[in-house]
Known about the structure:
The chain is mostly helical. The chain has helices at 2-11, 16-23, 27-35, 42-52, 56-72, 78-89, 101-121. It has a single domain (2-96), classed as lambda repressor-like DNA-binding domains (434 Repressor (Amino-terminal Domain), Orthogonal Bundle), CATH 1.10.260.
Amino acid sequence: xxxxLRNAREKKGLKTREVAELLQIDQAxxxxxxxxxxxxxxxxxxxxxxxxxxxxxxxxxxWLKEKILRDIExxxxxxxxxxxxxxxxAPEPVQKTNSDPLQKxxxxxxxxxxxxENLRGT
Length: 122
């Protein structure tokens, strides 16, 4: 998330001081968000997304991911806890949307391979 924030700010041609003034946030906090030393609140994430024209879903997912990782980092049972939480949140396996063109091509090639194998077998 930190590089996303920095890149979006630079793309808009804004200095950290300007972002801080516009959002009424301390300039040091903006710098710490971009360096990964501090994490914005959800409200701050939404404000940054709007100001820097970052897709809200993208930045909120990154923010939540980092929040989860911070909480389970170093926990020997962190992965088990995460899996248990997932079953409560979404009991059915989450279907991945395949927006990666390379992966889509590989999946199509795999499907064709199976079709050819089935044709040979008949």
